[in-house]
Structure formats: C-alpha cells, structure tokens
Design a protein that fits this description.
The N and C termini lie far apart (85 Å). Strand 12, helix 35 and strand 13 form a beta-alpha-beta unit. By secondary structure, this protein is α/β, with parallel strands linked by helices. The chain is built from 38 helices and 14 strands. The strands form 3 sheets. Strands 7-6-8-12-13-14 form a 6-stranded mixed β-sheet, with helices on both faces. It has a 5-stranded mixed β-sheet with strand order 3-2-1-4-5.
C-alpha cells in the first residue's frame, strides 16, 4: 500500500511547522483513502503535538497510528513514536516495555529506529553509556541505508551525551554534522534543538556570551514554531546560574516548569524543578531549595529516572549543609550522592558532591578523609566555569585544613585570577557582576588567611581582590544600533504608559519581554579580555596625600578595618558583624519612615548615634579627609552624619582602586546640566534655585524626554537630576531615573559616549546598590563609576521632597561652583544642614561616591 505524498509531507512538516500539522492534519486524515497513509498522518500529528500541543494528545495520535497501520514497518515506527511520547510524559517503564515488545518482531531499518528510540529514553534517564551502545547500533544501519534524517538524530543525541561526559571536541564534531543534515532537510525545529546543545557546549567551555546567544536563539525559534509562550528546556537557566544571575534563573526555571506541567511534559517539568531548586539555593534560600528539590525527587522517582534522583539529592544535601551545618550523617549522605554521580559519569555533579563532602569532613576535623574526597576533584581539568572555580576552592579548603597557608593562599589567588580572565572577556555589565559571585568563597578564604598572618598590608590586598572587580572594566556596547534603539524606545514607551496604568497586565508583560530582549542583545557583546590598570599601592599612597583610607572587611563574624595613612597600614578590629548589619537595617527603616510620615527626625538621630556606637568610633581616626571603602552591605549607611565622622570630608568608594582611578578623571566639556523630573512637588523649584549657582546652565524641565536628558549630560562637567529613581532588585540593570517620557535606565547610562564628570542624583534610592549573594555592586552609581565619572553624589534612601533637600543641594552646588571637590562641598553642606532638625534627614540621605 503506497503512502500518500500528502501524508508524507505532513510528517516532514512536523519538525518544521508543528502548528500547521495540527491545524491541517485532521482534514487531511479525513480525505486520505488508505490505512497506511492515515497511519503516517496520525504519526505526524503525534510528533507535532509533542511540541505544539500536549503529550496526552501525542500519545493518543501515536496509538491510533500504530492501530491503523497495515505495513509492519509503519506500525513499528508508530510504536517508537508512542514510546517516546509515553517516556516524555513520565512513564519510562511503560515506554521501554512498548519498545521491547516491538523490537521482538522488528528487523532491519525498523529495528534500528526502535533501537534509536531506546537510546533516546536511556539518555533522558541519564544512562549515557547504555544509550551510546544503542546509538552506535542504529547509526551503522542508518549510514548503510543513507538515511540523513535519522543519521542527524543519532548524531544530535550523541553530541548531547559527549558534552555531559566532558568530550567537548567530539561533541562539537558530531553536532556540526547533525546541524548540516537537519538544515539541508529544512527541519527547523531540529536545528533549534542542535543550536541548544551547541549553546550548552559553549557554556562548558566558559564562553558565556556565545552560550546565551545560541540558547536564546534556540528558545525563540522553538517558541515561534510551536506557539509556546515559555522555553521548553532549562539549559539557559544553567548558564544563567554559571553567570551568577540566580534570581533570573530561578524565575525562568519556574516558568518552564509551569509550562511543561500545562503541556503534560512530566520529564521537562522535573528537570525545571531541579534547576529551580539549585537557583533557590544559590540565591540564599535553602528552605525553598529543599522544597523544590523534594518535589523534583518525587517526579524523578515516579519516572524511574534514578540518576536524576542523585542530582536532586545533591541540592538537598547542599541546602542542609547551608542551614544545619556539618554532621556525620550528612557526610555519609553526600558521599553516597558523589559516588552515584561518579558511577554515572556526571563529571560536574560528582565534583560538586565531592567538594561538599570535603567541606563537611573538614568541618568535622576529618582532614585525611577530606583529602580522599577532594583529591579527585583537584586533579580534574575540564568543565564549565563554575566547576573550575570550585576546583580552586576545593584546593584552598584542603590546603588550609592541612595547615598549608601558603598553598591555600596560592589556590585562592589562582581561582580569582581565573575568574578575572572570564570576567575580562564579558562585555555586558550584568554578566560581569554576576560571575563575580563565583569568587566569594575564595575571597573569604584569602582574607581569613591574611588576618591570621597579622599583616595589615596583606589583609588590605585581599580586601581589594574582593571589591568592585567588575567595575574595573567599562561596559561594551553591542554594535547593532538598528536592533538596540527600537528596543530602547519601545521599553521607554512602555514604562511611560505604566505610570498611568500601573496594573495593566499586557503592559507589564510587554515591559518584561522588552527587558529580556534588551538584556539578551547586550549579553552577546564581548570585551577585549585585557585589564589595563596600572594600580599599585605606591600610586595609591601618592594619590591619597594627607587623606586617610579606611577599608572595612568581614572575617568570619567580625568586622575589621585596615587604615592606610601616611603610607602605613594598621589593622583595627571593629566588632561583631551581624549586629552592625541589623542595626543599619533598623536605622534605614527609621529614616524611610520619617520621610514618609514627615515626622520629626529625633528617633533617626538616636538611631544614628546607636549605629555609630556599634562601630566604636573606630572608623575615622583623627583625619580631616577620609576615603571609606565599606563592604557592600554597608554602602547604604548614612556615613556623612555619623558623630565620629562629623565635620570631616568623607568620600565613599566601592574599592581603593576605583577611588584611585576616579582621581584621574578630569576631562569634561564644561557644561552644567540641571534636570527636573516629573511628579515631584519641589523638583522644579530645586532646579530654579540651583541655576543661580552657575553661569548659563542648561536647564531641563519635568517634561523633557530621556533622549534629551542623555544628550545633555554627555561629557558634562556637572549634571544634576532631581527626579524619582527606582532600584530594580530582580534586575539592577533596569534601575532607572523617571523622566518626562519614561525611564532612563542603566543601559541608557552605559550608552553615553562619555559620562558626566560629576553626577548628582537628587532622587530617592538613586545611589542604592545591590550585592545579592556576592559583594559586587550594581545600579546607577556603579554604572557611572565603571564608565569613568569622577564622582557621584547620590541618595541611599528616601529623600524628603521639601525645601530642606533643595537647600542642601544649593549649598553643595555653590561649593562646586567655587572650585571645591565634590566630597568637600557635600561635607560642608551636610554640616550646616544637620544642625537643623528639618535638614538632618536630607543631610543623612546623601553620599559622595567615587573619587571626589
């Protein structure tokens, strides 16, 4: 019985246009006249339903295809499709039974196709070596019969396995051949799947921009062809985790899990839940991590995917260690997980589990046992970025536990150097900020060893190694303005419309999509891979002159400082870390409440004294000019009004190197720009008053566009923005100033050819930064400093929309107009304002950050 060309066309379209197959298939089936043609058409519907409908529908169509087929080969192919869909729906045991029964009767090409399907199911179970045996058997038959479609499918799956087994060159070769074959056949859905794995390959090689480019391209193609609103696969989440973008990875993984559940793709849902659990753990939420991993565990168990149970168990073990600490029972559990993953040749997972076992053993003072856990990890060479960093971490931990301080220090420095190499090649700021989190533990080890050495200069060097490292590299702009500018314009338009309709679901969705697209484009940019810094302690000492530099760091549960004055380093213990952080949280809450309720600031003043008392008056010594480098969690403190720093000139810097770099920023076009934003009662009055301090300033009113604002402040000597600001915790790159037609965000700031020499952000939270799981700062202020602004004067809380703020700013600008440095001008203005109750909150809200 001859199969109708129409039915064959439907089958060919299933991997290129599945929505069309589901739309046209029922009509075609009604019109087809023979059973085998109907069987092929139903199988096409089954394949299409996997992508563009539900697995329940896919299973139904495949069963009908097998039932109506008269030709044995077509029935076997239908049973293979059925087995695949049943496995994807979560019933792996039933799928293998279907294949076993069909294989008992099949021969030749039909048997090879069933063997291929068996390999695909074993791949989903993590049984990689067994799957490869199936693929080799099938591939010999397909090559002999010159069947390009199935040759491509086998090579695709072999490439996927080779990546996970660390055979990267082999993976690249077979995936390249598979892509050529699929592209020649016009199977666009399959091509997108191969691009997905090529992205995964790039991530294993540490090429994060290329990995994200390919994975995003693959996801977009898949969604376009299938009509899905979320991606199907979680590999992009894995790369986001590698890059330290934990919150974004968690959100995307949860969306994928929900989408998979709606489509009945139980395997994909379980995979997404596992990645979401890892993201929650890395985000600092072990409780949520355990909850998600436990759900994934149940899914894997019901699906018979025992190897993936070990991956979920690893997340649970890591979360328990974070929340409960070390125990003999947890050590035994983690070792079992490590052995299971090693037996399954999951290189990355086995290494992670072994490192966990080693850490637990060290905590339990079982150093020899820890060495047994860690030696195999340390000797490894291949793997993605995070694994290489973890190897350095494992080496440092082991050497430290063995009493080899020099070896531990060397390993920690080596890990951070590796991190520098990756970071220097990333053009997108959020990727550089994110990947810095991978070095957090290495920095803690190095600083701990430095403190143990009792050498203040060594402690200072280690503090600097962990501070604002990403800010050393200016952002690299994508080259394609034709793609960028419409996105920027559309996003600004959406944010402007949301002011009038803040709960409009469609607008919120559109804004989210535009933000995601803008991030994607920026993340494809690359840097030169070079750091041209000539920073040195000798140059720092020369630049400081009579100033005192105080750098604070956290060692264990203690806050310590290193003071650099007149070329000499001194170590000064401060006090317990956690109470200081908690007290700052209370102080910031009191400040915000005072502004919101317009209350007398007496309570805030008392809180300021209490916070200062916890620091023990040990911050500033007796110097008149102080450069203060706090850890990220203390950047938002009201340093300028602390009693122990009263009447001093205080400059806050993310790192000593960033302060030193900022001293050299002197160029500007001489312009003074004063901009008022919308929806602030006193903003225009503030700008009008400030205009008297300068000769012929450029004034922008509340209705001015963001584009006009950007053009005006470019290269300016002074730029002042009195407008609302918003800090985006989930994605600090979209932190923004509110202007007449929409937001001016960090991406807009980074597109300036030259930033203003001095930027004044007279807006609530404009200077606020986020450190998330690391100590890398993000936000508007950080963007300006990275680009080369000398100083940023910005708020670290709510700013009173009162005359007091305008008066503070007027005093400050008069100082600037008379030639004072920003830090000195701000200090004088704050001293005068802080003595007045109405001016205290305004004075406390602003910091001079950078090199002023």
């Amino acid at each position: 019985m001859t199969v109708s060309p129409r039915a064959q066309t439907l089958l060919e379209m299933a991997a290129s246009d599945p929505q069309a197959v589901l739309r046209d298939g029922p009509t075609a089936i009604d019109e087809l006249t023979n059973a085998d043609s109907k069987s092929v058409a139903y199988r096409a519907m089954s394949v299409a339903a996997r992508s563009a409908a539900t697995l329940k529908e896919s299973v139904t169509y495949a069963r009908i295809s097998a039932d109506v087929a008269e030709r044995p080969s077509l029935r076997f192919e239908a049973l293979g499709t059925l087995a695949g869909s049943v496995a994807m729906s979560g019933d792996v045991e039933r799928a293998l039974q279907i294949l076993k029964a069909a294989s008992a009767e099949a021969f030749g090409t039909s048997a090879a196709k069933l063997e291929f399907q068996r390999g695909a199911i074993l791949t989903s179970m993590g049984e990689y070596e067994a799957a490869l045996v199936c693929y080799e058997k099938a591939l010999r038959v397909f090559r002999l019969n010159e069947d390009p479609d199935f040759i491509a499918r086998v090579l695709h799956n072999q490439g996927f396995i080779s990546i996970h087994l660390g055979r990267l060159d082999e993976a690249e070769s077979v995936l390249g051949e598979a892509r050529e074959l699929e592209a020649a056949s016009g199977r666009h859905l399959e091509v997108s799947g191969i691009d997905h794995n090529l992205g995964l390959l790039a991530s294993y090689r540490g090429d994060i921009p290329e990995a994200l480019r390919r994975l995003t391209m693959s996801d977009e193609t898949h969604m376009q062809l299938t009509g899905d609103e979320v991606p199907r696969h979680v590999s992009r989440c894995d790369v986001l985790l590698s890059a330290g973008l934990y919150r974004e990875a968690l959100d995307l993984a949860k969306r994928i899990a929900r989408g998979a559940r709606e489509k009945g793709r139980a395997e994909d849902e379980a995979d997404a839940l596992l990645v979401a659990a890892r993201a929650a753990l890395l985000s600092g939420d072990p409780e949520q991590a355990v909850k998600l991993a436990s759900i994934a565990n149940k899914r894997f168990s019901s699906q018979g995917r025992d190897i993936w149970l070990r991956h979920a168990s690893l997340v649970i073990a890591e979360a328990r260690y974070e929340s409960e600490g070390a125990s003999a029972e947890l050590l035994e559990f983690s070792r079992q997980v490590a052995q299971g993953l090693e037996d399954s040749q999951f290189v990355v997972g086995a290494a992670q589990a072994s490192i966990l076992s080693g850490r637990i053993a060290i905590d339990l003072d079982e150093v020899e046992a820890a060495q047994a856990d860690l030696d195999g990890v340390i000797e490894g060479r291949s793997g993605p970025v995070e694994l290489k960093i973890q190897r350095a971490h494992a080496t440092a931990l082991l050497r430290m536990a063995q009493g080899d301080a020099r070896g531990a220090d060397s390993a920690a420095r080596s890990g951070l150097k590796l991190l520098d190499e990756y970071q220097s090649e990333l053009g997108a700021s959020d990727l550089r900020y994110g990947i810095e989190r991978r070095g957090l533990e290495l920095g803690r080890i190095g600083l701990r060893l430095a403190v143990d050495s009792g050498r203040p200069q060594r402690i200072f060097k280690w503090m600097e190694r962990t501070r604002a490292r990403a800010l050393r590299f200016p952002p690299v702009l994508p080259s394609d303005d034709e793609q960028i500018l419409p996105l920027v314009a559309d996003l600004r338009r959406a944010t402007g419309e949301l002011r009038e309709n803040p709960d409009d679901f469609d607008l919120l969705k559109k804004r989210s999509q535009l933000q995601e697209e803008l991030s994607r484009v920026h993340r494809s940019s690359r840097a030169t891979g070079e750091d041209d810094s000539t920073f040195s302690i000798a140059r720092l000492v020369e630049a400081l002159g009579d100033r005192m530099l105080v750098e604070l760091g956290v060692v264990g549960d203690q806050l310590v400082s290193v003071v650099l004055s007149n070329g000499r380093f001194t170590l000064v213990p401060i006090g317990e870390w956690q109470p200081i952080v908690s007290e700052l949280g209370l102080l910031r809450f009191d400040m915000r409440r005072s502004v919101r309720l317009n209350r007398n600031p007496d309570g805030v003043q008392r809180a300021v004294y209490e916070f200062d008392g916890m620091l023990g008056g040990k911050i500033g010594g007796d110097a008149d000019q102080i450069v203060l480098v706090p850890p990220g969690a203390l950047m938002a403190a009201p340093w300028s009004v602390l009693p122990s720093l009263a009447k001093r000139t205080v400059t806050i810097a993310p790192s000593a190197e960033i302060w030193w770099r900022a001293q050299r920023q002197t160029e500007s076009n001489g312009r003074v720009v004063l901009a008022a934003g919308p929806d602030l009662e006193h903003s225009q009055r503030e700008i009008d008053v400030l205009a008297d301090a300068y000769r012929l300033p450029k004034i922008l009113g509340p209705g001015e566009s963001a584009e006009s604002f950007g053009a005006a402040i470019q290269g300016a000597r002074v730029a002042h923005a009195a407008c609302h600001a918003r800090f985006e915790v989930d994605n600090p790159m979209f932190s923004a100033l509110r202007l007449g037609d929409g937001d001016f965000n960090v991406y807009d700031m980074e597109r300036l050819e030259k930033p203003p020499r001095l930027m004044v952000l007279s807006a609530c939270d404009s200077g606020y930064t986020d450190t998330n799981a690391g100590d890398e700062l993000t936000g508007l202020t950080s963007a300006l400093l990275s680009m080369g602004s000398q100083a940023v004067v910005a708020s670290v809380g709510l700013v009173p929309d009162t005359e007091a703020t305008a008066d503070l700013m007027l005093m400050f600008h008069r100082g600037i107009a008379h030639g004072l440095e920003p830090s000195e001008a701000l200090s004088r203005a704050q001293t005068l304002m802080a003595s007045d109750p109405d001016g205290f909150i305004a004075a406390a809200s602003f910091l001079c950050i950078g090199g002023g």
